[in-house]
Amino acid sequence: MSIVLLPLSYIRWHCTTAWRDLWRLYTNLSWFIFNLFSIKLLATTLFSPWHRLNEKKAKGSAGFLGKVIINTITRFVGACIRIVVILTGLGVLILCAIFFAGVFALWIFVPFVALGCLYLGVHGLFTTFAS
């Protein structure tokens, strides 16, 4: 490839392929975070007992009442822990979305920053040798 075609190739890549790759990176990272925190699984099993801890069948009314209380407590503890994990996962997903929104917004200005750096470098080079 000729050095003359390099800027045109960069502009074509920057405006087409790079946007697709950035979007694919965002969707892959979001999918990973969603599955890392098991958000769907935890939401579907929200009121299941924590670690399947539950009382076995007991005889008598006192045993039945104790079983109901223990099972309710384990379900409540399980729901609280699952809610915390779900909210943490959703928070990380929101932070990821905010980060990538910033990346997408800044990506537009990358060629201008590159041109500015090139200008400052060439300008600094000539002013150093001129003095």
From TrEMBL:
<feature type="transmembrane region" description="Helical">
    <location>
        <begin position="76"/>
        <end position="100"/>
    </location>
</feature>
<keyword id="KW-1133">Transmembrane helix</keyword>
<protein>
    <submittedName>
        <fullName>Uncharacterized protein</fullName>
    </submittedName>
</protein>
<feature type="transmembrane region" description="Helical">
    <location>
        <begin position="29"/>
        <end position="50"/>
    </location>
</feature>
<keyword id="KW-0472">Membrane</keyword>
<keyword id="KW-0812">Transmembrane</keyword>
<feature type="transmembrane region" description="Helical">
    <location>
        <begin position="106"/>
        <end position="126"/>
    </location>
</feature>
